[in-house]
Amino acid sequence: MSFAQSSWFNDRISFRLPSVTFLNQKHTGDDDLGDMGLRIGGGHGHSKPCKACNDFRSWMQWNNLNAKNSIDSENKIKPKDGCPLDKDELGRSSWNLLHTMSVYYPEHPTTEEQSLMKNFIIGLARFYPCESCAKDFQADIKVDPPRTENRIALSEWFCRVHNRVNRKLGKPEFDCSKLYQRWLDGWPDGSCFDYQASLISMFIKPWC
Q: ERV/ALR sulfhydryl oxidase domain location, by residue (predicted)?
């Protein structure tokens, strides 16, 4: 009997196969976007686990870091800077970009600008690295097409889409009336501009 087959080993070490998504990106049966006249499809396949498709814990479990006797050390492991993004990191970064883009979008966009933004959103739904996320986004676009006629319409559209994701994940929804405070102007209490207070204190402190 090998060491790995011994009862001592089995009692102390137990690995389980986590639910990990593999990179596919073929988008079989992608939805037709109807009035926009575009179909999201095609793509490439890959046989390795997709880090951008999985949260950090699932990814680490795939790498056999879920031994029962190492739970404490696993909880201390955090994503490192300079490494590929997991699904949660990718989502946060993407929403930061999209909300910021929307509040800087022109108030009176030209026809060309509206078309470019719509195509950008459609392209994002096609090429977003997390396949399950991409499919959800495709479904959202079909039911609620992008609103690109002006800044308010676009920023509120992204907020609605984000809140649908939040509801699905059991997260609190964002108050869309506060979009500009969160992503453009900063909060009324000035907390987003603490550097001003820091600069003032640099001049005041020597005199205290």
A: 83-183
Domain count, the chain: 1
Query: Domain span at residue 70?
Result: 16-174
Q: What is the DSSP letter of 88?
A: H
151 against 78, higher pLDDT: 151
CATH code of the domain containing 36: 1.20.120.310
- Is residue 33 included in any domain, yes or no? yes
Report pLDDT for 168.
Answer: 94
CA dihedral over 108, 110, 114, 119, signed as positive or negative: negative
Identity of the amino acid at 53: C
Q: Which residues pair with 39 in a beta bridge?
A: 32
The helix (H) or strand (E) run that includes residue 112 is helix 111-127
- Kind plus residue range of the DSSP H or E element containing 76: helix 71-76
